[in-house]
Amino acid sequence: MHMEYPNVFIMDHPLIKHKISRLRDKNTGTNEFRQLIEEITMLEGYEALRDLPLKDIEVETPLEKCMTPAIDGKKLAIIPILRAGLGMVNGITALVPMAKVGHIGLYRDSVTHIPHEYYCKIPDNIDEREVILLDPMLATGGSASAAVDYVKIQGGNHIKFMCIIAAPEGLSKLAESHPDIEIYVCQLDRELNEDAYVLPGIGDAGDRIFGTA
Ligand code: PRP
């Protein structure tokens, strides 16, 4: 948990720390980078999905019938912020394959750093779902805040945001503009540079996932 914000959870697992060091390395290639993003998301998802509701179902073991808990995953909406959030989807759907998946397309203007929306499609009845927004990078926090605004306007009211690397500036912006959501962060980095990139960071996650740098 973060000292200032009770709804911010910062991961401290050594497996996550090790994999983030591999992400940081500029010599880590696209294939390994993509795989690491997926693995880290799965480990983070283990924490972020800790309060998933369960319902008892009947199962026949080799010995007898019993009632046993199962996840009611149909009420989950996984929403990556394009493009880089796409890299996290498989890590979560591996855990909850029955979840619905939406998309929010935002790109950050390279000069103003203001996010612009270009495509949005989210699962229906969003007000009845637990929404999990995915984006590996939280830099100024503009994209994440805009994505949460969008989901709320559509009726979403139970929202979690999962990222891998956050800058203190972006984390404060998101936590203060949306104090009602839970924010999961694998690594809180030092600061933003003048181009609004996270330092020391992992570079441009979208470009490194898709090999477009
Ligand atoms: C990057 C990143 C986040 C956003 C973070 O996306 O993937 O979505 O910027 O920055 P912010 O917190 O300052 O808004 P970008 O706009 O470069 O698009 P991409 O994912 O398509 O590369």
Commentary on this structure:
The chain has 213 residues and is of the alpha/beta class. The chain has 6 helices and 13 strands. The strands form 3 sheets. Strands 1, 4, 5, 6, 7, 8, 9, 10 and 11 form a 9-stranded mixed beta sheet that branches. Helix 1 runs antiparallel to helix 2 (30-48) and helix 2 crosses helix 3. 1-O-pyrophosphono-5-O-phosphono-alpha-D-ribofuranose is lined by residues 81-84, 107-108, 113, 115, 135, 137-144, 170, 196, 205-206.
Short descriptors:
binds 1-O-pyrophosphono-5-O-phosphono-alpha-D-ribofuranose; 213 residues; 31% strand; alpha/beta; two-stranded antiparallel ribbon
Estimated helix fraction: 25-40%
Calculate the terminal CA-CA distance, rounded to whole Å.
34 Å
**Number of helices, where a helix is a run of at least 4 consecutive DSSP H or I residues:** 6
**How many extended strands?**
13
Structural class: alpha/beta
Morphology: globular
Largest sheet: 9 strands, mixed
Oligomer class: single chain
SSE succession:
EHHEEEHEEEEEHEHEEEH
Each distinct ligand: 1-O-pyrophosphono-5-O-phosphono-alpha-D-ribofuranose
% residues in beta strands: 25-35%
Radius of gyration: 18 Å
- What is the averaged pLDDT score? 95
Low-confidence stretches: none
Task: Explain the layout of strands and helices.
Blueprint (H helix, E strand, L loop, with lengths): L7 E3 L3 H11 L5 H19 L5 E7 L4 E7 L4 E7 L3 H8 L6 E2 L1 E6 L6 E7 L8 E5 L2 E2 L3 H12 L5 E8 L1 H10 L4 E7 L2 E2 L5 E2 L5 H6 L3
Parallel strand pairs: 1-11, 4-5, 4-6, 4-8, 8-10, 9-10, 10-11
Antiparallel strand pairs: 2-3, 6-7, 12-13
Helix pairs in contact: 1-2, 2-3
The structure holds 1-O-pyrophosphono-5-O-phosphono-alpha-D-ribofuranose.
The site of 1-O-pyrophosphono-5-O-phosphono-alpha-D-ribofuranose has 21 residues, from strand 4, strand 6, strand 9, helix 4 and helix 6.
